[in-house]
Amino acid sequence: MNDRPRTALVIGATSDIGRAIAHALAEDGCALQLAARDAARLERETRDLRVRTAAAVTAHPCDVLDEDCGVSLLDTLDPLPDVAVCVVGLLGNQAESQRDGAAAERVMRTNYVGPALLMGALAERFERRGSGVLVGVSSVAGERGRATNYVYGSAKAGFTAFLSGLRGRLAASGVHVVTIKPGFVRTRMTDGMNLPAQLTATPEEVAAAVLTAIHRRRDIVYIRRVWRPIMLLIRAVPERVLKRMKL
Questions:
Q1: Which one of 43, 101, 195, 227 has the largest count of C-beta atoms within 10 Å of its C-beta?
Q2: 152 is a catalytic site residue
Q3: Would you kindly state where each structural domain of the chain is located, as residue ranges?
Q4: Is domain 7-242 given the CATH code 3.40.50.720 in the classification?
Q5: Which DSSP category does 162 fall into?
Q6: Residue 198 and residue 226 in contact, taking contact as beta carbons nearer than 8 Å
Q7: Which of 112, 150, 152, 222 is catalytic?
């Protein structure tokens, strides 16, 4: 961006990654609008950020599973933010999703339907204004369907495709769309998992990459960079071979 953003909205602000992104944006001089579904926890995070950063911070309870979330959230935002970052996600449990359609739907709606509808609503207002940056946190899991997490992966694949199309649509409008693709990240969501250290980022790494992507108008960002060649190889594996692999 030519000018630094003045106001930033973080959706999913009470997650580990959301908190780190909010801190990074506050340290970069942004006033913050924090959105999350747990109103009590959101208020605690808002107070904590005010104390730690001295930034102007407002709280906006919003559940992306609520069909009216987009409209109700946008109506509370004053001003309309310069940047909006959506870091909403739910890993879920593949075995449970296979057995329980409601559990699978929750994973799909949390990772794709809700965030896509909300980002779409923000895009309409950003486009009318003619400026802004939309950042969606997706996942490398969306690049190929894998037997061990295809419900989560398919939802992230949908979100990645949505962001790509939105980026193309808005390319000439003054609005930029960024897709962030983390691999493993050490968070509460992955707590207890045996993650490879070389492939596992921290929330602070994700936040730093998001900030850089906003300022440099990046399109797609992998965290860490090693994931780019890894996913290139995984995408190249023939389906007949992939179905026999335990990925």
A1: 227
A2: yes
A3: 7-242
A4: yes
A5: H
A6: yes
A7: 152
